[in-house]
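Service request form, structural biology core

Requester: graduate student, group of Dr. S.
Request type: structure prediction, single chain
Budget code: on file
Notes: please return the result as structure tokens.

Sequence provided:
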Amino acid sequence: MKVTKTEKILLYAVGECYMHLNKPLEKAHLQLSISKIIFIELLLNKIKLKQPRTIYKNLERLEEKKLIQYTHKTITFTSLGLKVLKRIQQEIKPYLEIKQSLNLIEKPKKKLQTRIIMKDINN
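Core staff response, request fulfilled:
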């Protein structure tokens, strides 16, 4: 099954949202669930994304492809959706590791050299 880039991004966003919301509840063995409306509001408030209707339609497309389902008005992953999410996470893992490792790099003791590069306006 072909999953578009937009669908991958939205599927990843649902997964990350669940991961971050449920992280504090792991010790209590509890899980939060998110309704479609709450998820769309979270995306619109925190991330500059498209219009709510576009996100809603993309969520419906994920449901048609059987990647997510709605159980008691909440978004849940299907087994196929979880497989695709894990594949997406594996694809972006090297990029996230680089970003995390660069955040941990200490500034060198020697001062870094700054250079000003003049670009030719005529070219």
